[in-house]
């Protein structure tokens, strides 16, 4: 399977190289059909490439063609180079009904071309009539097999319930109901071990076996943190889609927010290390993945509002005051005296803004009532 990954990576990089040198006004870069013809010639000229599976190599070209089409539709980024040990994997199509079978309650088998039967953990049911699957390998050395299925969206509760979600760094997601949710991070012992491994990696000689083992150990810890974040996102998005008819979030440009502040040699940036720490905090809280999964599970029920002044506006009187935020966690309005958690206050403003957005589109009124103070629960107040 590592050879399959290497062949798929090699073919993908060749396709990327062909499109990288293409310029507007010149002859169009070769498409999928022409690249398949070139692949046949390359397999005839190279025995090591011919020894691999043609299905794996052709699907790498098809994946590149799809990625390139997504880029021109401006829904994804431009396809880039693949490196060994990163984003490893391959796809198999035209799966026969007998190519996937269940051995026991928790074990299944899948037939991989030129490999044979491969056992995997049966974590969930495989739909009938599946036609393809993808095998991937992460940096921690773990193999995964995924069968593509389009899941049904989660039905709305039909209770006209609306919730505002404010995403932050200290608190991952603050709800307008007053609940504060945080992504489970590494434990203190795991953070200490990660620090020791990073120091050990800095002393290891490049290209040595010891350095490779340390990198694998670091990747396992990072994978554990990523798994916890993904699990939190899945559970949180499912819960929000089931409990609320409308979920309001800020329309944040996360790509722009997480850009480096390093600058150039002529105009170096300021506060580069602080900005790098902020970028890590934003990415570690899964801001983008949470909204993406909400849109998948509750299509048409996710409202994005303008994020301006949501953290400075008082949710009780509507006055915008930068000095009202006493600290990261406390907001105390100097106009009406209302005080609550700053993130919850922002979530309330997001909810109210979503009500105006839904009403403007012709939906039922979901905005704030004339008297907004009764909406704030007593446990939100800061005594």
From TrEMBL:
Keywords: DNA recombination, DNA-binding, Transposition. InterPro entries: Cas12f1-like_TNB, RNA-guided_DNA_endo/Transpos, Transposase. GO terms for molecular function: DNA binding. The keyword Chloroplast does not apply. GO terms for biological process: DNA recombination; transposition. Residues 151-260 form the Probable transposase IS891/IS1136/IS1341 domain. Residues 370-383 have a biased composition (Basic and acidic residues). Residues 287-350 form the Cas12f1-like TNB domain. It comes from the Bacteria. In the C-terminal section; belongs to the transposase 35 family. In the N-terminal section; belongs to the transposase 2 family. This is Transposase.
């Amino acid at each position: 399977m590592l050879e399959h990954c290497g062949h798929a990576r090699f073919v993908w990089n060749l396709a990327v190289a062909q499109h990288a040198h293409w310029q507007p006004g010149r002859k169009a870069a070769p498409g999928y059909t022409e690249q398949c013809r070139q692949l046949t010639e390359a397999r005839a000229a190279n025995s090591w490439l011919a020894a691999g599976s043609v299905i794996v190599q052709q699907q790498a070209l098809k994946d590149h063609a799809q990625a390139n089409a997504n880029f021109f539709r401006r829904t994804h980024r431009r396809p880039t180079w693949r490196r060994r040990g990163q984003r490893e994997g391959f796809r198999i199509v035209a799966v026969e009904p007998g190519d996937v079978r269940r051995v026991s309650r928790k074990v299944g088998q899948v037939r991989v071309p030129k490999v044979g039967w491969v056992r995997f953990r049966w974590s969930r049911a495989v739909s009938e009539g599946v036609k393809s699957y993808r095998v991937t390998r992460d940096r921690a050395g773990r193999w995964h097999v995924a069968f593509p299925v389009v899941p049904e969206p989660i039905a709305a509760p039909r209770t006209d319930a609306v919730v505002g979600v404010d995403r932050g760094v200290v608190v991952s997601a603050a709800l307008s109901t007053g609940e504060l949710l945080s992504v489970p991070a590494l434990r203190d012992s795991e953070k200490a071990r990660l620090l020791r491994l990073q120091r050990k990696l800095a002393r290891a000689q490049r290209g040595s076996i010891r350095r490779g083992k340390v990198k694998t150990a670091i990747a396992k810890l990072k994978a554990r943190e990523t798994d916890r974040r993904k699990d939190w996102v899945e559970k949180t998005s499912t819960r929000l889609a089931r409990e609320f008819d409308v979920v309001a979030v800020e329309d944040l440009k996360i790509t722009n927010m997480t850009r480096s502040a390093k600058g150039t040699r002529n105009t170096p940036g300021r506060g580069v290390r602080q900005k790098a720490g902020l970028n890590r905090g934003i990415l570690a809280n899964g801001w983008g993945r949470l909204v993406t999964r909400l849109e998948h599970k509750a299509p048409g029920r996710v409202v994005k509002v303008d994020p301006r002044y949501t953290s400075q506006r008082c949710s009780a009187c509507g006055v915008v005051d930068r000095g009202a935020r006493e600290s990261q966690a406390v907001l105390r309005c100097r106009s009406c005296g209302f005080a609550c958690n700053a993130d919850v206050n922002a979530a309330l403003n997001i909810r109210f803004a979503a009500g105006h957005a839904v009403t403007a589109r012709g939906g039922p009124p979901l905005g704030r009532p004339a008297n907004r103070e009764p909406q704030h629960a007593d446990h939100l107040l800061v005594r």
